[in-house]
Amino acid sequence: xxxxxxxxxxxxxxxxxxxxxxxxxxxxxxxxxxxxxxxxxxxxxxxxxxxxxxxxxxxxxxxxxxxxxxxxxxxxxxxxxxxxxxxxxxxxxxxxxxxxxxxxxxxxxxxxxxxxxxxxxxxxxxxxxxxxxxxxxxxxxxxxxxxxxxxxxxxxxxxxxxxxxxxxxxxxxxxxxxxxxxxxxxxxxxxxxxxxxxxxxxxxxxxxxxxxxxxxxxxxxxxxxxxxxxxxxxxxxxxxxxxxxxxxxxxxxxxxxxxxxxxxxxxxxxxxxxxxxxxxxxxxxxxxxxxxxxxxxxxxxxxxxxxxxxxxxxxxxxxxxxxxxxxxxxxxxxxxxxxxxxxxxxxxxxxxxxxxxxxxxxx
Amino acid sequence: xxxxxxxxxxxxxxxxxxxxxxxxxxxxxxxxxxxxxxxxxxxxxxxxxxxxxxxxxxxxxxxxxxxxxxxxxxxxxxxxx
Lengths: 363, 81
What we know:
The complex is a heterodimer.
Chain A: H1 2-6, H2 18-57, H3 65-95, H4 100-107, H5 112-125, H6 133-142, H7 147-159, H8 162-172, H9 174-197, H10 206-209, H11 227-262, H12 269-272, H13 279-287, H14 294-306, H15 311-323, H16 326-332, H17 338-362
Helix pairs in contact in A: 2-3, 3-8, 3-11, 5-7, 5-9, 6-7, 7-9, 8-9, 8-14, 9-17, 11-14, 13-15, 13-17, 14-15, 15-17
Chain B: E1 2-6, H1 11-27, E2 32-36, H2 39-42, E3 52-55, E4 58-62, H3 68-80
Parallel strand pairs in B: 1-2
Antiparallel strand pairs in B: 1-3, 3-4
Helix pairs in contact in B: 1-3
């Protein structure tokens, strides 16, 4: 019965004979190689195809506002979707190695600063959705993981995600994507460390604290570790994530394309540029209650940048939207008293504001 | 047979519940399916991520949505005992 337990396919999950399994592995590899070749081909010819469609088939003139918007959309939308499929798949494979249970084992017994660094880093690769914030928080507290380390994980996890990574890379280049990861990590590490130093454990809800150091059995369930299992995990991640974000993505790129073509250059410089010192905190305050995934925000951010908004301000806005959200705060209220929740939002918000200023100063 | 779905009502939890109901119906079982939404009750099981599936008080999956075939296997192997 071992085969049925490890099988994660969607269609035929009946007892799979060993030979059939070897055959399906070969088929899977061929399928993957074919998919990759198609991907490279599409990506390579995208710009030409977009230009051909816009200027030769639709007969729009390259200098016109509409032409510029349409070419922007026809090139960017498929490019970002292609990148998204590839990166989500690769990250899905990586994530199949990191279950929340494993992350907890790694973090248990870590001291504060090193624990914050590991917590934030593991936040990137551990599969986790914000509706699981409560059980995860409680499970970490139970294992004796310090509060600050747990929060480092919970800050990094939504803020640095594969969708943000893809979009930043696709629209701004790898320098900005890496800058985003590094600053996101620093904010998660620093904010978690500061909250840990403040000794706020008494503001965890009492019923959660009571469970502390009552060792609980670690659940045995984990992902299939076979090669096929990981591939399927990656493919499922693509289906789940790309299936969920593509409408936001197209909507965001459409708005971005509109701004690209129609809004005059530099119009935002006066109130979102480097000169306006209050623009960074304002962007963060506006961004915190807004909840959207990176897919909807980044294309708009790109368009804003193009029209004169400062990079630090734009990134701060994006981090606030993606990293701090009202729904997650409401979920966390079940395990944290409001004082701790306020400190949490305050410290992370402040971290984002400082980062925004630093970017505006340096770049 | 008693089946519990642990989860606070997110989209994945609802998807799991639907899958379980279908699997139970296909098997023609008379099973009691309970949605456990209270966080304190959920945390009586050793899980770190929702949704989770409990069959006859045994935790069989957590942090993911098993497909119908898997759920069927979980249920039938619990029946065998």
